[in-house]
C-alpha cells in the first residue's frame, strides 16, 4: 500500500489510501483529536533547514493560522500575519540536520522533556492558490538524545503528508502514530513536494499528541457507583488516585474489600493510586456488609437482644424485667412510661417473629 501511496499522483487516491492505513491504525483521519492532549507551544521549539519571507519554523507550533474556536481549521492566507513555514529550495542539502537522513529540507522539534508520543497531526502548506510547496514524501525520525551520530536517531517511518486543500477550513491530516514511543527530538526530512513552482517547501502547522493511557474502573459485583474516578484517559506515567466508598442501596449494603489490577499502590486500601504506564483495567471488589443496625436494617424496640429478630430470646429478657417500676427502655419499657407491663408486652406481640435482617 505504501508503494501505491508514493507512486499514485492522484490527490484523491492518495487521501483514500492514506485514510485506510490510518483507520487500520485505530484513529480517524478527518478530524483532529481533542486539543487537551497535545503538546503546547511552550513545550516545543522548532528549527529548520531554512526559512524565507518571515515564514519561520516557529509558525508550525505557535497555533498561528488555526481558528480560535476549535483550533482545528487552518487559514489559507499567508500575510495576516505569517502563519506558515516556508524554506528555500534544497536548503536541506546545504544545511543538513546532524544525524538524520539526507533531504531537500528538514524541520526539527525539541520538546522540554521526553514524552510518550501518540498521533502526529500535520496541516500541510495551505495558501490559497499555492499549495504545491507542501511537503509530500517525508522521513520521520526521533531521538532521546538529539546527537549527531546517526545511531542516536530512529526512523519511525517513511510516509506521505497529504496535500493541503487550499481552503480556509482545512483540517489537516493524521500522518503517523508513535504508539507511545518516548522521544525528546523529532525531525521531519522532506524528499519531495506537491509541485512547488519554485522548489520551495513548507508546512502550516504540526501537532504532537501525547500518548494517553485509558483507565477503566469496574466493580464486583457490577453496578456499584461509589468508586472514583470513572473511566477516563490520563498521561502515560501519571499516578491517578482511586477510591471506593461504602455502597448503600437498601436492602443491599456493600463494603470495599480489595482492588484487582496491575500497578496499584495498596490493593487493600479503599483510597490508593494506580500508575498509568499502560492502559489499565482496575476492579474494586466489594463484599456484602449488611448487618443489624445498619442504614438498611435499623432495630425496633421489641428487639431487646439487638439481633434483628423478635423471638424467644427477647421474650426472655422481657420476662426478666416484668413489672419493674424503674426499668431502662432497652430492658423492657418499650413505651417508656416507667413500667414494664402489658402495654409493653403488646408491642412485643405485634413484632413477634419479625425478621428484620435478610439472611
Task: Summarize the structure in words.
The chain contains five helices and 16 strands. With 359 residues, the chain is mainly beta. Strands 1, 2, 3, 4, 5, 6, 7 and 8 form an eight-stranded antiparallel beta sheet that branches. A five-stranded mixed beta sheet has the order 11-9-16-14-13, with no helix packed on it. Strands 10-12-15 form a three-stranded antiparallel beta sheet, with no helix packed on it. It is rod-shaped.
**Unreliable stretches, pLDDT < 50, 5 or more residues?**
21-29
The main pleated sheet reads as: 8 strands, antiparallel
| Cα-to-Cα separation, first versus last residue | 65 Å
Beta-strand level of the residues, as a percent range?
A: 25-35%
Class based on secondary structure composition and strand pairing: mainly beta
In sequence order, what are the helices and strands, one letter per element? HHEEHEEEEEEEEEEEEEEHH
Outline the fold blueprint.
Elements: H1 2-7, H2 11-25, E1 44-48, E2 85-87, H3 91-94, E3 105-124, E4 137-143, E5 154-160, E6 173-177, E7 182-190, E8 201-210, E9 212-220, E10 227-228, E11 232-235, E12 238-244, E13 247-249, E14 252-260, E15 271-276, E16 280-288, H4 312-320, H5 342-350
Parallel strand pairs: 9-16
Antiparallel strand pairs: 1-3, 2-8, 3-6, 3-7, 3-8, 4-5, 4-7, 9-11, 10-12, 12-15, 13-14, 14-16
Short structural summary:
With 359 residues, the chain is mainly beta. The protein contains five helices and 16 strands.
Amino acid at each position: 500500500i505504501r508503494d501505491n501511496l508514493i507512486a499514485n499522483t492522484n490527490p484523491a487516491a492518495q487521501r483514500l489510501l492514506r485514510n485506510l492505513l490510518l483507520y487500520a491504525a485505530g484513529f480517524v483521519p478527518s478530524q483532529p483529536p481533542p486539543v487537551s492532549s497535545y503538546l503546547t507551544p511552550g513545550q516545543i521549539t522548532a528549527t529548520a533547514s531554512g526559512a524565507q519571507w518571515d515564514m519561520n519554523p516557529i509558525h508550525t507550533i505557535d497555533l498561528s493560522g488555526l481558528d480560535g474556536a476549535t483550533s482545528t481549521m487552518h487559514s489559507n492566507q499567508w500575510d495576516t500575519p505569517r502563519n506558515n513555514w516556508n524554506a528555500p529550495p534544497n536548503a536541506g542539502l546545504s544545511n543538513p540536520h546532524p544525524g538524520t537522513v539526507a533531504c531537500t529540507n528538514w524541520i526539527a522539534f525539541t520538546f522540554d522533556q521526553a514524552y510518550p508520543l501518540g498521533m502526529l497531526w500535520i496541516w500541510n502548506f495551505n495558501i490559497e492558490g499555492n499549495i504545491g510547496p507542501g511537503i509530500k514524501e517525508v522521513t520521520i525520525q526521533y531521538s532521546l538524545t538529539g546527537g549527531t551520530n546517526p545511531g542516536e536517531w530512529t526512523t519511525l517511518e517513511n510516509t506521505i503528508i497529504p496535500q493541503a486543500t487550499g481552503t480556509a477550513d482545512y483540517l489537516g491530516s493524521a500522518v503517523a502514530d508513535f504508539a507511545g514511543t518516548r522521544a525528546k527530538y523529532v525531525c521531519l526530512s522532506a524528499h519531495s513536494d506537491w509541485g512547488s513552482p519554485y522548489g520551495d517547501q513548507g508546512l502550516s502547522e504540526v501537532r504532537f499528541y501525547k500518548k494517553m493511557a485509558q483507565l477503566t474502573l469496574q466493580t464486583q459485583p457490577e453496578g456499584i457507583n461509589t468508586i472514583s474516578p470513572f473511566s477516563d484517559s490520563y498521561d502515560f506515567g501519571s499516578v491517578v488516585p482511586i477510591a471506593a466508598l461504602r455502597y448503600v442501596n437498601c436492602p443491599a449494603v456493600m463494603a470495599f474489600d480489595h482492588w484487582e489490577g496491575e500497578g496499584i499502590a495498596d490493593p487493600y486500601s479503599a483510597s490508593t493510586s494506580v500508575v498509568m504506564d499502560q492502559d489499565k483495567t482496575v476492579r474494586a471488589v466489594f463484599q456484602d456488609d449488611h448487618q443489624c443496625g445498619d442504614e438498611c436494617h435499623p432495630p425496633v424496640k421489641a428487639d431487646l437482644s439487638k439481633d434483628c429478630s423478635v423471638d424467644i430470646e427477647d421474650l426472655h429478657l422481657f420476662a426478666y424485667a416484668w413489672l419493674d417500676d424503674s426499668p431502662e427502655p432497652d430492658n423492657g419499657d418499650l413505651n417508656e412510661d416507667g413500667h414494664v407491663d402489658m402495654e409493653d408486652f403488646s408491642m412485643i406481640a405485634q413484632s413477634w417473629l419479625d425478621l428484620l435482617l435478610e439472611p
